[in-house]
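Onboarding guide, step 5: your first structure request.
Type a short instruction followed by the sequence, for example:

Predict the 3D structure of this protein.
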Amino acid sequence: MRLPPAAPLTGALLLTLTALTGTALTGTARAGDGPDGTERAAAPGPSVERISHSRLDDRALYFVSYNGLVNNNSFQKNGVLTHRGHQYAAWYTEDRSAVIARRALGGTGWQTLTLDHRLTVDDSHNVISMGVSETDGRMHILLDSHSDGLYYVKSAAGLMNAPEEHAWSREAFGPVRTDLDGVHLTDRFTYPQFVATPEGRLQLSYRAGVSGNGRNGLAEYDGTGWRALGEWSSSTGTYRSEHGSSSTRNMYLHGIDYSGDGTLHAFYTWREGSNAVMCAPGGLTNHDTGYVHSTDRGRTWRNAGGTVVGSTGGADRVAVDDPGTVADPLNPDHALMNQESQATDSRHRPHAVISYVPGRFGQCSGDYVRDREANGRAFHVYRDDAGDWHKTEIPMPLGSSQRTKLAFDRHDNAYAVLPRGRIAAASASSGWTDWKLLDEAGDLNAFGEVVLDETRLHEDGVLSFMYQERSAGTTPSPIHVVDFALPD
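The system replies with structure tokens like these:
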């Protein structure tokens, strides 16, 4: 049974909104779990141990816009990544130059290089995102775009697949271009997110258009060149709330990621183009948590039940009224945040973290920043093996308008990196209902959102994220990478 999304929560802060089944989850030990039928030890619960803390830059560029920083935004995929034993980080330094750095895993010394590009405008959307094409060993970088043109640069072949054999220098990268090696995607480009396919190709997710009237698109690099696959979400149709209606929107992704079985997953929320759908003009027009997936590398999209609801580059795109696409319903009156976080566990189940102001604090958010800082809460949402959706409140007040990152260890324990770098976790054995705070992160002095190294979790099981220290005005501040060991 699902409670209405705006209904007040009762009892303990930790509330599961759908009944959990009695099925044993990954990370829960049972007799006979061993490959020879013998009993094996119970999997450990979640834990973190800080093992490394390195400073990238004493004076990284600092300004606050859209309540965020250009060097640390939740949609920055990937601002930090790991590939073949080396970790890479990207940021803008004090003079607005784009900087890329690398280090060998286990080391604290970073090698830096400066690209031939400086940030053009004080806009926190204009992040740096990196990707790796395994087929030819290149790094790909997109940066400095918000509903306008793009800036793109790629490395020499082999740089990423054999880092010990290549000098880390500006000469290892080609010129900064305003297209993808001759491929033009859109005149209004935002939110580049690179994702590697199971075969080693590199895909690029992006938005074409503007907030409230945009479409998600995909492009693909096969080792020889880029090609546009097309757009796959719709901005048209009518959405109606109890307050009014809207005829345009865009799908804000919480992420786009492949699970181990080759399925491409996408959680999202819709943002309407008209404020008429809100109870008050100072809120957010975001509504509903949606979910679709693709089993053919993003060519067609299916709802959770497996029905095709759209195709990439085709006439039928994923739309606001497509059946079976809503994982968690919520109207636009609760300051639901866009572009939060998602991940999959070892059994390929999709999970997301969303956040909003629960109904127990009121039924109308008239100032989304103030209301989220005062009463915002994060929730863990996932779909079980039987196809049912579950939602549990993470019982730590956000105290922030900003977003949370989600990750899993090898035992399927879940970790939520909350604003300011605080780490909460829940065990797989509980069905992810026993959320607790593991690290207060008070010594970090982190501004808010962090950039999670999603690829390092798979490389060596370390939870690693980049954060920038809080400053004032436009005074530059240090930017860091901090690493935590998770259970073996």
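Each response can be followed by summary notes, for example: The first helix runs from residue 368 to 375.
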